[in-house]
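Input sequence (151 aa), recorded before submission:
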Amino acid sequence: MSALKFRNITASVDDPVETWPFEGILTAVERGTLPDWQRLAAAIRADPWGPVAQQVLEAVEMSRPYGTGELLTTVVERARQEAADAEREQVAGEIRELVARSGLSRQDFALRLGTSRSRLSTYMAGKVTPSAALMLRIRRVTARAQITQSS
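Predicted structure, token format:
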């Protein structure tokens, strides 16, 4: 249970942190306790680039709370890195699936894509994330290969 109290704002500390105005976030950063920061951290992990994460970073920059600022900044950085890693793996998984569905060898797929087999492997492993335009091309190569196979 939190001992945090809000003044001069209509939100309650019991409301979801996503509904707190900036002043509520600032109060939690400056005067909150571990349960309050855990709630902020959960909201940040759920949406690392969302409003709570942005407001926490702004509150930390504004108030520069000793210890808490570093902790919450690290929470945002880690949440963003974990989300980016998960997104990169999701893209790599989609590419692996598309190459497999195409029925083409990796060498043939890479040639039709206009790249090398080794570069295609970096996309499939998640080491490199292709551009949006290249993702469209990968999908198009798969679709055309499937049409050719069914003919």
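Checked by second reader. The chain has two domains: 17-65, 88-150.
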